[in-house]
Amino acid sequence: MKILFASQNQHKLEEVSKILPSTMELIGLNDLDFREDIPETEDTIEGNALLKARVIYKKFGIPCFADDTGLFIEALNGEPGVYSARWHEKDDRFETNIEKALFKLKDKGNRSAYFKTVVAYIDNKGEILFEGRVDGKIISSLRGDSGFGYDPIFIPDGYDQTFAEMPSELKNKISHRGRAMKKFIAYLA
Ligand code: IMP
């Protein structure tokens, strides 16, 4: 079965291709030469995942899924949440999202946070959402070179390594995206 992941993010495509069963052929937007930016204008993770999946399903008409992820930091009242991708752009004192998180948490004792991913899938039967969440904490400096995004500052509960220090197989097994994908794959099966 051919399935289209409505993403141009190569890191995500690699992660997801390792999670999907080998009977499924994963294609990404770059494979279809689709390079337009789809503005994430909704104010929820669910809304943005659906929005991306709808745009791509309408354009290509093949079974397609999109994901949206947010990092929710407890001491910052859930920030950056749905704005995780472009958080630092709201405040140009910060070079990167990670710098901003570390700065804002500098004097905070509560470092709890969670990642949430929503996968939105559309085919000719309709639309369906799958959610995955992983709880953990934000550390005070970066550790590890693998993964992407906020991985170097996030340690999932029950582990000592950041997502960026873990082998990708372990991250995929316990991560927000891995968990949402597992539910999605069970549905497809
Ligand atoms: P989006 O799902 O691509 O919109 O991701 C929103 C933001 O969360 C981006 O800044 C990503 O880098 C970050 N992000 C998404 N997935 C992960 C992950 O698995 N680890 C760390 N950061 C992530």
The succession of helices and strands, N to C, reads EHEHEEHEEEHH
Shape label:
globular
* Structural class by secondary-structure content: alpha/beta
| Oligomer category | single chain
Contiguous uncertain segments of 5+ residues: none
Number of strands: 7
Describe the overall structure.
With 189 residues, the chain is an alpha/beta fold. The chain has a single domain (2-188), classed as Maf protein. Helix content is 29%, strand content 26%. The protein has five helices and seven strands. Strands 1, 2, 3, 4, 5, 6 and 7 form a seven-stranded mixed β-sheet that branches. Bound molecules: inosinic acid (IMP). Inosinic acid is lined by residues 9, 67-69, 71, 84-85, 97, 147-151, 163, 175, 177.
Give me some keywords for this one.
single chain, 189 residues, alpha/beta, Maf protein, globular, binds inosinic acid
Give a brief outline of the structure.
This protein is an alpha/beta fold.
Give a topology summary.
Layout: E1 2-5, H1 10-19, E2 25-28, H2 45-60, E3 64-73, E4 79-81, H3 97-104, E5 112-123, E6 126-138, E7 154-156, H4 168-174, H5 176-188
Parallel strand pairs: 1-2, 1-3
Antiparallel strand pairs: 3-4, 3-5, 5-6, 6-7
The protein binds inosinic acid.
